[in-house]
Each structure stands twice: as structure tokens, then as C-alpha cells.
Amino acid sequence: MIHIKRTNSNDRDFQSLVTLLDMDLKIRDGEEHVFFAQFNKIVNLKNVVVCYHSDEAIGCGAFKEHDVNSAEIKRMFVKPDFRGMGFAKLILRELEKWSAECNYGSLILETGQKQPEAISLYKKAGYSVIPNYDQYIGVENSVCFRKIIKSNSNL
Description:
Largest sheet: 7 strands, mixed
Shape: globular
Order of helices and strands: EHHEEEHEHEE
Mean pLDDT: 90
Oligomer: single chain
Strand content: 25-35%
């Protein structure tokens, strides 16, 4: 049985999954990991989802406000044994739905060139590559995306 729980960053399952995510990113990003880690703190995230297969927490994601019209997707992860089965897509859809309910008109995100699976997921989900934003400007390993999730006259 698959289910997705809406929660926050105090959730222990989310914290455990983020620990696994950070271990994976440390290997992929090498020396650059310290730079990226500073932007991925999970303290006080109010919008977190955890995906369960039976009773096992297998994946997660979150979003936080970027500006009044957009939210930023953060901390997307699926355990390796469950990749390629559509769980990341389910998590992403739930984040999109929830952020639209919170009246955000678009989502942005940053991922790394060394994460081809993530890049493929976002492209298939309708995200468009955009110029790197904020702290990612000039960072060669970063790829930034945006997706309009609902019509908003302020965009």
C-alpha cells in the first residue's frame, strides 16, 4: 500500500530520509557538497511530504516560500531500492498540489548536473530550465527549473 503524508520538518521519517539524501549527495557532489549543504537546512520547513510503501518511509520532498508568488522545491529523495517506480513523480505531484493550495503560482528548484535522474524527472514533469537564481548564479554544477502550477494574475 502506498500513501503520502503531509507533515513538517520535525517528522522523524523525513529527518531519516534527509540523512540518506545528504549521504548520497556528499558522494555525488564531492568537495562541492559543503557549498550546497548550506542551502539545504531543514529547520522549520512547514510543508513536507513523506511517501510510504506499506509502513516503510521510502521518499520525501518539501517546499518553502521563495517569494509571494513562488515556492521552492527542496529535499526530494527516494530510497535507491524504490527508484524508477514512479514514487518521485507521486511526491512531486503532491508538492505541486499542496503549493497550489497555498496560492503559489509557480515552483522553482535547483538540482545538480551530477543528478541526471532528477533532471529527467523534472523535465518529464513539465519543468523548464531557467537561468540559475539567487545563490546558484554562476554555479556550473547547478541546473534550475520552473513550472507554472496555476494561473495567478500576479505572475
